[in-house]
């Protein structure tokens, strides 16, 4: 048993020298001292099988060796723990003198939101209210209220998404759907804008999307003229694109205005010489506008003999294309990060 005890101690010492971390040290300890199967534990248990004198002598020796081994274990544990903290201090060291690292951009506003925010500031600073309206709209507010009755050919100008089994609901085709809602709620005088998403059953191309944004504007008061409308629109366009931007107005029929116009600006891509974005015209249509039709004022419970007004509807998405030189409208709703990260 003497030989066995001194071999155990030697083996323990040489294994201890190879240990480099606390987990392996714990494993080694269990090999020798675990209650069930540790080598040293087994020796201690076997002492009771020895006879009187031998048990006493081997008991004393086994205890001395056990204590020595436990001391060696404790010393190694302390050394490894110290090493662990030193390593941690070294690896987790913070160099407070290091220059600030660039912060990765996690996200940002969509270009349509950027232009929308800018225009909301512009119009609210001129006293316009900022309004919202439902995207799933009644046929009444989308069409009838703005003077487009059921059988009117103008319904074909805006190819509509109808809702299955709901005869009276459509995805709004324009933000003009909020005109009469606002008149009914706030009456006259009225100055408001409505930015929002609209939907049309369109074959898409570089200028046309099925889902795009518009920005509606309405001003109703006494003695409002076509000149006031032109002034507001020109101010807005110059605010967005600079003082020398030219706007071209051309007569256009919209059932909810009389007279009505559409407005174009020089194509941003070809600068007027003609390209695929402007369909070789050199101009890009960005809005419709006009003096509000008396029937629309009446639908909004406003007396057309007392009040006049103008309304305009900008293709907000087209404004964004012009602002950033985007050659294809379909990029904007594509969710393509490579495209979006440029803004
Ligand atoms: C209208 O939607 C009228 N509600 C505008 C209006 C308001 C006229 C108030 C008079 C008074 P229009 O269908 O022309 O009009 O669309 C207005 C603008 O939206 C267009 O000038 C164009 O810039 C944009 N637009 C129209 N269709 C699309 C489309 N499919 N994709 C992207 N932009 C479009």
TrEMBL record:
Molecular function in Gene Ontology: ATP binding; magnesium ion binding; phenylalanine-tRNA ligase activity; tRNA binding
The EC number(s) this enzyme carries: 6.1.1.20
SUPFAM superfamilies associated with the record: Class II aaRS and biotin synthetases, tRNA-binding arm
PROSITE patterns associated with the record: AA_TRNA_LIGASE_II (PS50862)
Cofactor(s) needed for function: Mg(2+)
InterPro entries named in the record: aa-tRNA-synth_II, aa-tRNA-synth_II/BPL/LPL, Phe-tRNA-synth_IIc_asu, Phe-tRNA_ligase_II_N, Phe_tRNA_ligase_alpha1_bac, Phenylalanyl-tRNA_Synthase, tRNA-bd_arm
Swiss-Prot/TrEMBL keywords: Aminoacyl-tRNA synthetase, ATP-binding, Cytoplasm, Ligase, Magnesium, Metal-binding, Nucleotide-binding, Protein biosynthesis
Co-factor note (free text): Binds 2 magnesium ions per tetramer.
Residue ranges constituting the Aminoacyl-transfer RNA synthetases class-II family profile domain according to the UniProt record: 115-322
A Pfam family reported for this protein in Swiss-Prot or TrEMBL: tRNA-synt_2d
Domain of life: Bacteria
Subcellular localization(s) per the UniProt record: Cytoplasm
GO biological process: one example: phenylalanyl-tRNA aminoacylation
Reaction(s) the record says it catalyses: tRNA(Phe) + L-phenylalanine + ATP = L-phenylalanyl-tRNA(Phe) + AMP + diphosphate + H(+)
TM annotation in the entry: none
GO terms for cellular component: cytoplasm
Binding site for Mg(2+): 258
HAMAP family: Phe_tRNA_synth_alpha1
Subunit structure: Tetramer of two alpha and two beta subunits.
Similarity comment text for this entry: Belongs to the class-II aminoacyl-tRNA synthetase family. Phe-tRNA synthetase alpha subunit type 1 subfamily.
Name of the protein this chain belongs to: Phenylalanine--tRNA ligase alpha subunit
